[in-house]
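Page 37, continued from 36.
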């Protein structure tokens, strides 16, 4: 007997492979993960051996088991070719498992899928609809651009089939083809319109999905399909008015899936088009009033209706109806529906403020919801709703929320309450009372910039200094562990300590405080183990300034300051040593040096809508500590070997003495300018203005520098954003351009000609997102033949929802009248995440220097 005959006889005696249900039973019976792996490895070995021996009888069963093993997370790539063999089989059962295996084991990154293109094409031409359906289903899952081009013609033919089962699958394949190869879109346009008239809801649904995909990718196709709005309105009306149909009914609503898809398409077609919007106003009103709200399917339809109404040019009454629907959603017991309502109201609050205001009480109630996501959206919406009319009641509710809020909410809420009060405070007394309430409610979560902002507001409120210092004294006496409160109170006691001990208050009964009591409190704060280094600096500075206010405590103040002459902290040591030298050698100068600070002036003011007191907003939520280092890095970026550094006009805080060391390389500058043409001959005038830095934002006045040995910094003259632009040089007008646009920021350039070779660029940065953009910094560089000057920007915070803007003037001189090019470097922070990007602006108008 030959070896081959012996092998065949042995194989004929082998038992049939295990069935799928038996394999599942064995796997589930495994007690440990190791037992499960043993069962699977044994079965995989049997399957591999069967594939190797070309066992056609049980190939289908083995591939089915392999797919189940793959779904458990075990590798099964060796079964790909076996799937192709099953697809090529004439039997339907084999094709079914083969196409399922191809869908699970293959994707467009595998080269193997090219081998099944011919089999799929043949199956698309098969007489049996189910085999055609298998081929279309697999194609819709794994097709690549190459396969799309090869089989797009067959899919387009199947769209014209009389079989609804085939047409709806072909339409979904068309969606996949358009996503992979958008240029093939045109071949589907003639066939898809007829699908809307089909009586089968599945065909209508897939047709709407296909049209939506085409309209979202091509503005020309969108204009073409606006003609079908009446057809869509008719279909939607039939769905609403039709009676009960068991085939399409879902919880008492007729085919909600088709209704949602049609509403989504109507929103796309009606956006920015008055005629289409008018055609769908009536049907949207019917959907909004006739849809059942007790079931989730009805809420889904109403939500899509609201989105459609708010996106198109709908009537004002219809928009109010949409807002009222969202108000009803806020009363729903389902947390997901409440979250969706808050999220949508946050998007539309700027365009329909009055309608949203009617639901203010319901929104405020959401602050008490235990769900963190709902509370976060409710807080954001509450701040968006605040105006001059409701600021008292809304801030009161937000302070109640602040008292009980989780730590993750305290910083955001306190910072926004402070900035909101700056814009809408009805009077100074209420403003100061609210700020002190925030200090005690948020505790150590109050951001540092909010402390500086509050000190500045206190400085400006000269008539309330006595009241403020007494209230802060009482608050600090109750709790010295809250660092922001300790810092503000220490500053006020240092500046207005004479008012504290004098008790000259008209509004309230004066609190009798002696000099020793005030110094005892400051001494307990500076010696507290919970005091931060910054707080100790504030307190020491206050103690030193009090020496010019208190007449009977000079010796005690000297003793309190003496220990810090040997402090390890250089700031504390410097202040103490300087004070000792001042008292010892120049005591006659002490009253003048330590006199009360004048009211701090606000620089770079920007007007804010709703500011009742005519005050400007200095809203800077939580600047990250890396900002000053970036400013220092900017100086290094400007330096070039062998050339003096241009005057950057950069004002860094002298609290900690910093020196800008020359950079050893201009790598960052080269990176910023590497794509500009700098190879031309240098002009006779001073040739190169490498990078005009933005003067830093004027930091809040640091009270620690009152005794500083540094020479006082001369303030740079602030650039008037309209200065020099009034008397424009006559010439052709220069159109504005969009210089930078990303999902977070949009920066536009407007132009004003100052002279034939000098143009002022007015930069305007807006923020379309829901979160404020902070630490905004724009830098620019131009070729050697240009001269560039960046003026001080209006701020570094870009408000959300396009509710405000940061502006900045850039002056460009172009003696040689060359085409304008600019490289930029952009830095900003969103929700604590700092982003940087750089690029080139090359779309300047040709008429800029003509």
């Amino acid at each position: 007997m030959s070896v081959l005959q012996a092998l065949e006889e042995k194989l004929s005696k082998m038992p049939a492979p295990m069935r799928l249900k038996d394999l599942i039973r064995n796997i589930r019976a495994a007690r440990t993960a190791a037992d499960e792996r043993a069962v699977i490895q044994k079965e995989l070995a049997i399957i591999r051996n069967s594939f190797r021996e070309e066992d056609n009888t049980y190939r289908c069963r083995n591939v089915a088991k392999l797919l189940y093993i793959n779904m458990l997370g075990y590798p099964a790539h060796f079964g790909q070719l076996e799937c192709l063999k099953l697809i090529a089989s004439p039997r339907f059962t084999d094709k079914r498992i083969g196409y399922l295996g191809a869908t699970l084991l293959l994707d467009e990154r595998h080269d193997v899928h090219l081998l099944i293109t011919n089999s799929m094409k043949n199956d698309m031409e098969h007489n049996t609809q189910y085999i055609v359906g298998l081929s279309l289903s697999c194609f819709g899952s794994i097709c690549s651009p190459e396969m799309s081009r090869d089989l797009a013609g067959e899919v387009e033919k199947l769209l014209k089939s009389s079989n609804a089962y085939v047409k709806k699958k072909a339409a979904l394949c068309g969606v996949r083809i358009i996503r992979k190869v958008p240029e093939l879109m045109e071949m589907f346009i003639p066939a898809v319109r007829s699908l809307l008239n089909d009586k089968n809801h599945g065909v209508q649904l897939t047709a709407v999905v296909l049209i939506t995909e085409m309209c979202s990718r091509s503005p020309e196709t969108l204009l073409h399909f606006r003609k079908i709005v009446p057809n869509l309105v008719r279909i939607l009306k039939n769905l609403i008015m039709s009676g009960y149909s068991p085939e399409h009914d879902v919880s008492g609503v007729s085919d909600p899936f088709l209704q949602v898809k049609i509403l989504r398409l109507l929103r796309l077609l009606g956006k920015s088009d008055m005629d289409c919007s008018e055609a769908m106003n009536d049907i949207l009103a019917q959907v909004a009033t006739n849809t059942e709200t007790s079931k989730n399917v009805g809420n889904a339809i109403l939500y899509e209706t609201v989105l459609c109404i708010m996106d198109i040019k709908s009537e004002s009454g219809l928009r109010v109806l949409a807002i009222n629907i969202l108000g009803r959603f806020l009363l729903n017991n389902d947390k997901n529906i409440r979250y969706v309502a808050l999220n949508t109201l946050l998007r539309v609050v700027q365009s329909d403020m009055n309608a949203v205001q009617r639901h203010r009480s319901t929104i405020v109630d959401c602050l008490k919801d235990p769900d963190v996501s709902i509370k976060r959206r409710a807080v954001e919406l509450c701040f968006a709703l605040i105006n001059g009319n409701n600021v008292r009641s809304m801030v009161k509710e937000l302070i109640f929320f602040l008292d009980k809020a989780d730590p993750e909410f305290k910083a955001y809420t306190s910072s926004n309450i402070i900035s909101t009060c700056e814009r809408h405070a009805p009077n100074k007394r209420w403003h100061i009372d609210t700020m002190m309430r925030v200090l005690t409610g948020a505790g150590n979560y109050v951001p540092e910039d909010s402390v500086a902002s509050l000190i500045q507001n206190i400085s400006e409120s000269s008539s309330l200094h006595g009241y403020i210092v007494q209230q802060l004294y009482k608050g600090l006496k109750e709790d010295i562990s809250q660092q922001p409160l300790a810092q503000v109170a220490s500053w006020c006691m240092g500046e207005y300590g004479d008012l504290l001990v004098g008790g000259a208050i008209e509004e309230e009964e004066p609190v009798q405080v002696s000099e020793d009591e005030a110094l005892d409190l400051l001494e307990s704060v500076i010696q507290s183990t919970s005091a931060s280094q910054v707080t100790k600096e504030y307190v020491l500075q206050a103690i030193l300034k009090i020496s010019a206010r208190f007449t009977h405590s000079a010796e005690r103040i000297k003793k309190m300051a003496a220990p810090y002459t040997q402090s390890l902290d250089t700031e504390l040591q410097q202040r103490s040593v300087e004070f000792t030298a001042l008292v010892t050698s120049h005591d006659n100068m002490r009253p003048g040096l330590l006199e009360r600070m004048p009211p701090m002036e606000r620089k770079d003011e920007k007007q804010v809508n709703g500011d009742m007191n005519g005050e400007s907003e200095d809203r800077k939520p939580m600047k990250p500590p890396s900002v000053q280092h970036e400013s220092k890095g900017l100086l290094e970026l400007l330096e070039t070997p062998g050339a003096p550094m241009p005057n950057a006009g950069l004002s860094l805080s002298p609290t900690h003495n910093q020196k800008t060391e020359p950079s050893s390389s201009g790598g960052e500058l080269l990176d910023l300018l590497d794509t500009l043409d700098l190879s031309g001959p240098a002009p006779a005038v001073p040739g190169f203005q490498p990078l005009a830095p933005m003067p830093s934002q004027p930091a809040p006045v640091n009270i620690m520098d009152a005794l500083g040995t540094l020479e006082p910094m001369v303030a740079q003259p602030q650039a008037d954003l309209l200065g020099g632009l009034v008397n424009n040089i006559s010439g052709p007008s220069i159109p504005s351009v969009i210089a930078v646009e990303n999902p977070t920021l949009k920066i536009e350039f407007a132009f004003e000609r100052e002279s034939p070779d000098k143009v002022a660029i007015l930069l305007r940065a807006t923020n379309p997102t829901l979160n404020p953009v902070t630490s905004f910094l724009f830098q620019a560089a131009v070729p050697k033949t240009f001269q560039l000057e960046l003026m001080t920007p209006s701020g570094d915070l870009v408000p959300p929802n396009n509710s405000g803007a940061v502006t900045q003037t850039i002056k460009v001189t172009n003696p040689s009248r060359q085409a304008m090019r600019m490289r930029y470097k952009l830095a900003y922070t969103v929700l604590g995440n700092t982003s940087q990007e750089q690029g080139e602006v090359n779309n300047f108008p040709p008429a800029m220097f003509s």
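The two ends are 100 Å apart (CA to CA). Flag for discussion at group meeting. Confidence is low (pLDDT under 50) at residues 604-730.
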